[in-house]
Amino acid sequence: MATISAALAVSFLPSPTRFAAPATPSFSSRIKKAARFRCCAGPSSKEQDQEISAAPPTRLPEKPARTPPSSLLGISTSTWSAGVAGLGFLETGYLTYLKLTGSEAFCPTSGAGCSDVLESDYSVVFGIPLPIFGLVAYGLVTALSLQEDGKDLLPGLDDLDIRLTLLLIATSMATASAYFLYILSTKFVGVSCSYCLLSAFLSFSLLFIRVKDFGLERIQKFVGIQLSVAVIVALALTNSYSSATTQLKGTDDFVLEPYETEITTESSPFAIALARHLHSIGAKMYGAFWCSHCNEQKQMFGREAAKILDYVECFPNGAGKGKKMTQECQAAGLEGFPTWFINGKVLSGDQELEVLAEASGFVADGTEQPKEIAPN
């Protein structure tokens, strides 16, 4: 205990040596203490200045440079694409105008082949005129090709996006053209369509240009996507044309020019009165010039009465390959000829005059259908 007390007493004695050391910690000790907490506190201003001066200057990210398109005969593939697609845009624009206005196409070759094809069932896909699809496709290819050539028409697209999109569009257009050439050779035998051949040539040219742009080695990476696009286009066209009903079954195996069959029977007063009544209530008879039952129906009415009837010819331009039923007959949803529409009723096949009178509510005023005299 004495030793401990002596030690404590000595420690509290005023000594010059003890007061020589300042109570405030030294600068070096403060640095050491501060260094312990450097993970929580930021560096000193001096250290920050040293770090900032040593760090390289920060640069803003630059846009990747565009890969220059390849050339073909000394002209860039983007220029070729824009030029070819521009021609296609003009052609499909003209055909779209004809389709929407119902005008007849100018055919450079002799004959009516152009109109037969352009007005057939195959000129419409899912209810939309085919030239409109071509107009949109060629217009998009033109815009993307100009963008690839340096024109900032569609911002936000990089070089690979543009080139791959052009490749897939060209693939779909070439697939559709090949499909249409097959239809032209099988459904329109002997018919020439200059516009169809020109569009096919432009589509195949675009595909060749885009493949040339990628190169054969690089294009192998996208063959699977191209095949998928081609299959989708072919299936879509097949589905659209399989549901077409504008040409009745059995009429695609022959070609007939329209003709008139002479009505040789005389009209009875009853037939004339019935024909006038049917005309007054808006009853219509839909038929075709080649339909024997339609001609028999007209013979029942006779020459005078048949002229009074509201008869709708569904194939005024002929029947067979490439011939199209009129829009009115398409909208009616006919299943055969003749077909009567009387007061909201549909009567299929040739009908006796008494049946037509009953269906239309016709009341004979002093006229009766003459009875046939049975042979003895």
TrEMBL record:
Main subcellular location: membrane
Subcellular location, record wording: Membrane
Membrane topology type: Multi-pass membrane protein
Transmembrane portions of the chain: 124-144, 164-182, 188-209, 221-241
Origin: domain of life: Eukaryota
Pfam families: VKOR
GO cellular component terms listed in the entry, alphabetical order: membrane
Keywords: Disulfide bond, Membrane, Oxidoreductase, Quinone, Redox-active center, Transmembrane, Transmembrane helix
Region (Disordered): 43-69
SUPFAM superfamilies linked: Thioredoxin-like
Signal peptide range in chain numbering: none
A molecular-function term among this protein's GO annotations: quinone binding
Segments forming domain Vitamin K epoxide reductase: 74-214
Similarity annotation: Belongs to the VKOR family.
Protein name: Vitamin K epoxide reductase domain-containing protein
Lineage: Eukaryota, Viridiplantae, Streptophyta, Embryophyta, Tracheophyta
